Amino acid sequence: MEHIKRILSFTRRAIDDYQMIAPGDKIAVGVSAGKDSLTLLCALSELRRFYPVPFELCAITVDMGFEGSDFSKIAAFCEELDVPFHLVKTEISKIVFDIRKEKNPCSLCAKLRRGALHSAAKELGCNTVALGHHFDDAVETFMMNLFFEGRIGCFSPVTYLSRKEIKLIRPMLYMPEKDVRYFAAKANLPVIKSPCPADGNTEREEMKKLLADLDRKYDGLRYRLFGAIQRGEVDGFKVAPSMQGKKAYREEPEDSDEE
Predict the structure, then answer these.
(1) Would you list the domain boundaries of the chain?
(2) What is the pTM of this model?
(3) How far is residue 2's CA from residue 196's CA, in Å, rounded to a whole number?
């Protein structure tokens, strides 16, 4: 697949730095059908061909139950990548919007989706779940916790869920969102726009816009924030050997037409 080398570079570096994959791991990629999870699926699908640590791969999509949802293109794409695809049907949208009528639905929705994903992974014999959070997600989450909750925190690069006996990994930790957008466009990934009524109207979207404004005024702010998360060893982050003295994750993608 064209344009995959840069994506693989980011992904492998994060996996190596945080020892995300152990021999014989069976990894379920949580595929929401957005650009992030599909890019992660492509990266891990390619990586398994030559990575020195052998692992298995499958894809799990949680169907939220929105009317008209069609994941046939995602299933076909997984078949093309030779990755087993599993669709988990739920009524999460009905619970969140019709029954609970949540004014701020994102938290409950995320909790229910995570539960469905982890249970499906366990049933399929997977011991690891890979999530498509990237560099910008980490910075946004850090700032959201600071602004809205008054605490220093972020998601962790690697998390072990003892009750489910599942390891969560985030292999795209070093990958800026602009690289994800660029790859998704160039690789013509079958991205499905989220049907959620709250899409684009969330605290995360508000923080994304704020950081974009601040980054224009203070060039490189997001990278300094990410560096602070690493140096502060927030929730398992660290200044890893591959990142010391390097700014590789800040380079522009070749032939990029992104801002």
Answers:
(1) 4-244
(2) 0.89
(3) 31
